[in-house]
Amino acid sequence: MAENIFDCELPDEKGYFGEYGGSFIPPELQVIMDQVTAAYEEIREDPDFRAELADLYQHFVGRPSPIFHAKNLSKKYGADIYLKREDLNHTGAHKINHCLGEALLAKKMGKKKLIAETGAGQHGVALATAAALVGLECDIHMGEVDMAKEHPNVIRMRILGANVIPVSHGRKTLKEAVDSAFGAYLADPQTQLFGIGSVVGPHPYPRMIRDFQSIVGVEAKEQFKHMTGKLPDNLVACVGGGSNALGLFTAFMNDKSVAMYGVEPSGRDIDILGEHAATMTHGKPGVMHGFKSYMLQDDDGEPAEVYSVASGLDYPSVGPQHSYLKDIGRVNYAYISDKEAIDAFFEISRLEGIIPAIETAHALAYTFKLAQESDTGTILVNLSGRGDKDIDFVAEKYGEEYGI
To answer: Is 111 in the active site?
Structure first.
């Protein structure tokens, strides 16, 4: 491996990326979180843990995931487009990268159960998979709207032995699933470990999940150099909580010649609160789910209702490191609408034979725009997940329009 996936200067010892991050939780839970931090600090320096994780990445997940030169898309849009194929991982997305780390950590800490939220279901499937592998129980909280939309992943989780807990309050989507999972964790933090699904939550989760996901960029940097003789000019990834984006971006953070683009959902209307989930565009600093970051807020300063066609992106906040990277100008944040994402979903399916997750389709839609600009150079997209989970929803909602 070219670089250590656990090497990164931020956050500081209290979990802050500039002014963002930290741990805003009850004192009794902070005691437990300090134990999680101490256990993570220990395992990240443990050569046996690193070797075990590397072995699972190779022989269980199927890493390294390849980079594919999408020549048909490149020809159509006028710039060389490359795809980091995280969709080819076991379980179908980047989520397995951190779920294996969380499962091994839980086992080391003597926990009996992994508990988590899921939106699109990919994190739930990956955590259920990791729990089965290491012999832990698994509870997954999922909004009822997302359960209906992502039914194939609900079945996968149940086949893997997980208990899928329907969440029926609010909009019945990702934010409510996080609320429900946090409540269940607070009821028993001693025997459970919260396997948070993105670079969000109280310290050490934003750091820990980023570290596990950074294998994506470590591999990509070496692979791209081998393929082309140089670094990519641009990186593109979708952003909900932001784990797949930081997974790709981290290894390139000090390479100033590489531009980075995080793409969030503008949903049905970017100008109407509740009709999008464009946190970096319209949010402002706030605290939710135990951390400080940009957040979409209502008139009372509470988390606003959000919407996206992609269940994995409809979250009213974002990982705190993303907020820091926005403020210092290192990453450019853009947005893509439902319609643009669905168009891109079909475009790559029919031009390259790859059906992407709808979340990933947001990154692809922005890539097509970027590619048509003059002197764009090469673009490397994190193809963060495959679209098996979305095909029933897409066929039902968009089938007539797109001829299926």
So the answer is: no
